[in-house]
Amino acid sequence: MELAETTGLSPATVSTIVKQLLAAGVVDTRNTVRSGRRAQLVTLAHQYGLLVGVHVSLRGVRIVIADSNFTVLEERVLPLPFDHRADTTLDRVALMIVELTETLGAELDEILGIGISAPAPIDPETGIISLPAVLRGWEDVPIADVLSRRLRVATFVDNDANLGALGEARLGAGRGVRDLLFVGVSYTVGAGIMIDGEIHHGVHGTAGEIGHALVDPLGAVCRCGSRGCLNAVVGVQHLIDSLQVSHGPLSLTELIRLAQEGDPGSGQVVEDAGAAVGIVIANTAATVSPSLVIVGGELAQTGDLLLEPIRTAVARRTVLNAAGPLPIVPSQLAARASVMGALALASDHAVAARGPLSLTSNTGSLQ
């Protein structure tokens, strides 16, 4: 009756249309109860099952449920305290996945796989963070195994920058590109390196950890324990602290807003960050020779304030521009880059286990 009331069509007409859509595989139906009366729930059909992407960041978690064509069906974002711990965060993630699945009128056994994006390097052999100091409270935690046991769904985990690269290669600015560098600039800086269509992990999954490149031998000590890392110089907390005297306490959202509005001090620290990140990107690109650099992360919301200093630094390296300027573009997926990559990670493993899920074209794979 709700469909009839909403559309203005007669119940008989709605029933006929639903039967036609059901036969075409466009919708699913199931029996339910509304206001104490039996009813039929009509939902969009899930294309060959569901995929779940989870992006755990230093300050929050984003969960997306999509069909096998990567169409997002449900999404939820939850802020978390800094230095949140693995046990409580994974408990919340499990509960939210159950809630979002129920919202879709689906069951957990319809989920083909779960991909998790973590803000730290992940050892591909163990699924455990290989530099535990950078994410306190997650030491020696087999992240994917913990969530898999709680939900009884196959679960896989990788670093957020790696999955940002995979997400952009499949669904964003890097479609059709087989050699690219994705750089996320946020509370920390990290890179995902794609070479010939595959994510390069390196030993213990630490490839692309450009946030721990040395940029200032006399700089502050980083969370990793080394002095003068890029993260300690241009991480968001450092940028906010540098504005404490002139602006007072700021959040990342406020810093981005002020920079976008033309505030001189905020714009200056973002430009300085771009210049420092640009030098490290140039050095990394000279080594791995990408055909495209994609810049994402929260700070990329400031647009050319961040991107132009990066482009300037890269343009100074002749070897990178011998065949023309190396393209440096913003992420198309923005805040969803890593979580969409997590969906792709889950899809890859589901395909390996069950065969192709859909006709969606896949550029690049994660191994």
Indicate the topology.
Elements (H helix, E strand, L loop, with lengths): L1 H6 L3 H13 L3 E8 L2 E8 L5 E7 L3 E8 L4 E8 L6 H18 L7 E8 L24 H9 L3 E5 H12 L8 E6 L3 E7 L2 E2 L30 H5 L1 H7 L1 H4 L4 H9 L3 H25 L3 E5 L7 H12 L12 E3 L6 H18 L13
Parallel strand pairs: 3-6, 6-7, 8-11, 11-12
Antiparallel strand pairs: 1-2, 3-4, 4-5, 8-9, 9-10
Helix pairs in contact: 3-4, 5-12, 9-10, 10-11
SS-derived structural category: alpha/beta
Q: SSE order, as H and E?
A: HHEEEEEHEHEHEEEHHHHHEHEH
Q: What is the class of the largest domain in the CATH system? A: Alpha Beta
Give the amount of beta strand, in percent.
Answer: 15-25%
CATH architecture of the largest domain: 2-Layer Sandwich
Unreliable residue stretches: 358-367
Number of domains: 3
User: What level of helicity do the residues show?
Assistant: 25-40%
Number of strands: 12
Q: For this structure, what is the CATH homologous superfamily of the largest domain?
A: ATPase, nucleotide binding domain
Number of helices: 12
Q: What profile does the largest beta sheet have?
A: 5 strands, mixed
Based on CA atoms alone, the radius of gyration comes out at: 22 Å
Distance between the termini: 49 Å
CATH topology of the largest domain: Nucleotidyltransferase, domain 5
Mean pLDDT: 90
Please give the order of strands in the largest beta sheet. Answer: 5-4-3-6-7
**What spatial form do the alpha-carbon principal axes imply?**
elongated
